[in-house]
Amino acid sequence: MVAEESGPGAQNSPYQLRRKSLPKRTVCPTKTNMEGASTSTTENFGHRPKRPRVSAKCQDLPAAPAEQYLQEKLPDEVVLKIFSYLLEQDLCRAACVCKRFSELANDPILWKRLYMEVFEYTRPMMHPEAGKFYQINPEEYEQPNPWKESFQQLYKGAHVKPGFAEHFYSNPARYKGRDNMFYYDTIEDALGGGQEPHFDGLIFVHSGIYTDEWIYIESPITMIGAAPGKVAEKVIIENTRDSTFVFMEGSEDDYTVHMHWTSILFLSLRMFNPDDKSAQHHNAHHCLEITVNCSPIIDHCIIRSTCTVGSAVCVSGQGACPTIKHCNISDCENVGLYITDHAQGIYEDNEISNNALAGIWVKNHGNPIIRRNHIHHGRDVGVFTFDHGMGYFESCNIHRNRIAGFEVKAYANPTVVRCEIHHGQTGGIYVHEKGRGQFIENKIYANNFAGVWITSNSDPTIRGNAIFNGNQGGVYIFGDGRGLIEGNDIYGNALAGIQIRTNSCPIVRHNKIHDGQHGGIYVHEKGQGVIEENEVYSNTLAGVWVTTGSTPVLRRNRIHSGKQVGVYFYDNGHGVLEDNDIYNHMYSGVQIRTGSNPKIRRNKIWGGQNGGILVYNSGATWTSLGFIEDNEIFDNAMAGVWIKTDSNPTLRRNKIHDGSSTTALADCSWHRVSTACPSTAAYQRLPLLSPLPDNKIMNNQDAIEKAVSRGQCLYKISSYTSYPMHDFYRCHTCNTTDRNAICVNCIKKCHQGHDVEFIRHDRFFCDCGAGTLSNPCTLAGEPTHDTDTLYDSAPPIESNTLQHN
């Protein structure tokens, strides 16, 4: 460092300018030539020994004029300009000259320029300990010069920068003092230089495209992308011949692009199809391959693969246990992340999207921990576990994949906790071919097909999930499916909340199934299962259907507040209905029809607007049976039990009380016969087909007489299939026919002054109140609809299943 000045100090030696920066200094006569040097607290190179204490006999000597001018009077701007031409070691030595130089040589702007020249980062990268890297905002850092501190921490790293190695080593004078830095043109060269004495395993890969390098990592290293701005867009490693990165045994505790707290990306890894298009490529090529006993950390990378014969990331083998986080694994032509052969690892906060096959495959006892990943818009399934694959999936967002969001097959047994699985183009979760798994506290919603499919001897646990707003059913169990469906909140689905069919036999308990646009639980085509302690309420159609040879056991459920029937057995629906509370339905609590033969016992059935239990038959060749035992049936609007049209149930020890009709067992001996007026539904008395021992019938009221005395239309207490016994009329003014009947109150109110005719005292429903006449009824209000009509015209729609192997 030389300062050229005119004046008295111009003839001094340049070395005099490095002397102690005091106007007067005390010099011991015996040690006049010793130069003192201050010690830097942050730098460990370029230090001079401390100056010894000066004895009392020392005398004051004046400082040389040039030295005094340089140390005291030269403007800061000029000194800083001079310092800007120094490299880091010379700058540290200058800081040892005097207090003023120490302050100026530690100027953050000087060190930022040096730092960006070497490392290219626009923010300091801190490396306080092995394996720990993070960037900081300089303005928020507690130390005054984070650039210098980061420089010291990263100083011994090797640098890969295409074309720079020759420049660096051909200009030794320019880069004097950087003996601990190594520059290479390729990553392969840098990995081969790991035996250098000062190399500490830290490799900086600078801006550029690195193509077709054989990167096999067999020893502990740290590899970091180094570039300004968005690093991963400027540091690209790609391969067209083989896997881009391969971690071999021995590379435990590697750190590839490890950066802890920021969102800056550091490497972009790419894999292309092999160049030889004509050859049959049997070996898989992966963008990133991690093999046995390797535990690297992959952080903030962009990983792409257009190769169709290998995944973007493959983790395989016993002891393969990487940490992959904050990476983007997208737009690949095969699987995104593939974990197999007993591999494990931690995979957190990754973006996995738009891959041709599954976003994640877990196979053959692979057992990863996968947290907070965003898995979406896949061209196949989101996550696929099969062939004994396992894993712990937590707080992932899985959505808008073309097939299921999560598929489990062939003895796979993952644990999926607190994930969101939604807006799938088919279904949410698909468990098949003896798949298992635990799905706990997830949100499963807005999928095009069923929220959960279970089939082909699969036996998962579905517990504590919210399954809602599906475009078809909530949970669909078919084809010998099993499983435990427990403690879920299932609501707002377009079809049944739970559908059980074709010999499936799940355990369904402690669920809330409500506010469905269709029904609650639908068991059909020889479906089975134990359905217990659920709350089924406020569904648009029946709370529970049982049909076509099905035999479920329903016990201790609360089935209430439905907009139609509570429990509906039809078309040979069987099973056991016991110890349930069935109440407050718009129609009857239980209906049995067309050959059904359930066992109904120890239930409480109350609050039905159209009776407690209705047993009837709408087909010529069917006979509705059933055992109705030990039930308490009370406070229903019509009869406690309706039995009609060739039906023959057995009733024992029931308690039927406090109903709105004086006939608690209505029509149990009436059977429909042909008449000249079919709509009046004339009946003929026949003997009872089965005895009624030990039933207690008490405190029932006559709802018909109440309605007549209150001036109500009798249709309000009837429907198309339940006919009150009273006087009925016709109105010639309104051109009624033999197929029409009008109640007494409508004759008085709606047809006042008309030409009316009394027909007879018989069973009928009022056509005026039903809205079938030309003039609207002023008493009945909005007409209601018949149970049979709704079920026959809108049969349940089965969920579709798109099977993918």
From TrEMBL:
Entry keyword set: Metal-binding, Repeat, Ubl conjugation pathway, Zinc, Zinc-finger
Biological processes, Gene Ontology terms: regulation of apoptotic process; ubiquitin-dependent protein catabolic process
rRNA processing keyword on record: no
InterPro entries, per the entry: Beta_helix, Carb-bd_sugar_hydrolysis-dom, F-box-like_dom_sf, F-box_dom, F-box_FBXO11, FBXO11_UBR-box, NosD_dom, Para_beta_helix_rpt-2
Domain UBR-type: 711-782
Keyword Zinc-finger: yes
GO terms for MF: zinc ion binding
Pathway(s) this gene product operates in, as recorded in its UniProt entry: Protein modification; protein ubiquitination
Residue ranges with Polar residues bias: 29-44
The F-box domain, residue ranges: 68-114
SUPFAM superfamilies assigned: F-box domain, Pectin lyase-like
Zinc finger UBR-type: from-to: 711-782
Protein name: F-box protein 11
Phylogenetic classification of the source organism: Eukaryota, Metazoa, Chordata, Craniata, Vertebrata
